[in-house]
Amino acid sequence: MPESENTMYIRSNGISAEGTRDQYADGKAAKVWEVFIGDTKVRTMNYRNFLVNMLRNRGCRRILDVACGTGVDSIMLVEEGFEVVSCDASDKMLKYALKERWNRRKEMSFENWVIEEANWLTLYDDIKDHVKGGFDAVICLGNSFAHMPDNFGDQREQKQAITNFEKCLRPGGLLFIDHRNYDSIMETGSAPSKSIYYNSKHMTDIKTSVLIVAGKPAMVSLDYLISTGDETSEFRLSYYPHQLEVFKKILRDIFGHNSYHEIFGDFKELRDNDNPAFYIHLIEKSE
Ligand SMILES: C[S@@+](CC[C@H](N)C(=O)[O-])C[C@H]1O[C@@H](n2cnc3c(N)ncnc32)[C@H](O)[C@@H]1O
């Protein structure tokens, strides 16, 4: 399989500007998602080592996965014995999660697995019957949050979504949220095709396009080409390029500046001069 070629070209038009519409609605990405993310065992092992330990060590039991997609991370948590509520805005993605729950319905933990359609902008209202006293942890992983575009140029919808995540937590509850290292993508002009999340042997190319608005990077589009030998699939996903310092400030403004906030790089403690593919933020809701 040829090595990925990453190219960056600047476009002022032609990039989908899909708002909070479902980028997965045509079903293309959903269909090849499991191929895209590669060996789920490797990916799941990363999660098991990092997330499960972190959740257990902090006494978390009830987890809300706000971007469950096809269910990869939620399934791992259900298998590990957590009580999981999973949601996503895309019914095309959710249908794979629903299918897995149905296939494994005879296992008690899967029968109890709650799956709902919900949008981050209306999340609390969409799932309020399940919030009860608040979740021990909310997870928004797999580069999901960057799917939300900045429609107004001031990230107000991002802030509304994170406020909803915070509202779904109990006091002392934890938010785990990640984003690609867009600072590095902006600097180098390319996104690594292999990373902690995406280990696929079948990924042949990712083309990186950056939309600049008023001199500022406003959207990054990644055109994925996946070839499994017999079949070739192409799909495009667009992301808001979160910068680490700005994202830190948004989290701290919402959770409070005295809240416990730790940042990991590719599931490891972040050290100076690290250049990870992904940043993962852990922030705690004040008691
Ligand atoms: C990159 S996928 C990741 C799914 C899963 N966490 C994984 O890692 O495989 C991102 C998911 O975020 C969902 N999403 C994007 N914007 C959303 C929104 N505003 N509300 C709810 N879900 C959203 C998409 O539908 C998609 O399933």
UniProtKB/TrEMBL annotation:
Primary location:
cytoplasm
Q: Where is the Methyltransferase domain?
A: 62-181
Q: Which residues bind S-adenosyl-L-methionine?
A: 24, 33, 43, 67, 88, 119-120, 141
Q: Which reaction does it catalyse?
A: glycine + S-adenosyl-L-methionine = sarcosine + S-adenosyl-L-homocysteine + H(+)
Q: Which GO terms describe its cellular component?
A: cytosol
Q: What is its EC number?
A: 2.1.1.20
Family the UniProt entry places it in: Belongs to the class I-like SAM-binding methyltransferase superfamily. Glycine N-methyltransferase family.
This protein is called Glycine N-methyltransferase
Record the organism.
Chironomus riparius
